[in-house]
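Q: Got one fold?
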Amino acid sequence: MESESGRVIIAGRVALIDSGLVLVDSTLSDSTGAFYLTAPHPGIYALLVRLDGIDPQLSSPFHLVDGEFRQQTLSIRVVDTAQVVQPEEPARPLPNNPGPRYPPELLTAHVGGHVMVDMVIDTMGKADESTLHVRSSSDPAFTEAVREVIPRMKFSPARVHGRAVMQRVVMPFDFAVVMGAPTTTWGPTPRPPAGR
């Protein structure tokens, strides 16, 4: 539930993370805000909650014993993104990242285009694929090329006071055919606050 209003959160993405930060199960909350996850074995776990428009939130760790059924209420603080402190160093792609493959049929036809995505770059400098959202695209083949390359790209994470933090970025990809040769350019920009 939302901590300040007490509102039930419907269709929130909830993941069970083990002590090694490995995802072991995930689901969506139902119309009552409830969700059910299964741990593969006893151990220490945490819940990672993702909602559109806010950064992912991690619960406090908890210990599960064999056969235990655990029920708890999670309180999520939904923050107005206009109030979030901007990092001093925004997330940026590292040099020598692979570029998206130019779709052969569009290259042959000399068709250029664009794809605009937004996604969360985590503290390890990887794109969180579960947060990838296609804002606009001029062709589904360009979209597929971008979806294929994102998991292979590496970033320097955003930093606040020298500490790596997650950041949602907007990343444009532009495709063009110049003198018969394919070119692609890309680069992230921090996601603007909602409603601006």
The first strand starts at residue 13 and ends at 18. The chain has two domains: 13-82, 92-190. Residues 14 and 49 are 5 Å apart (CA to CA).
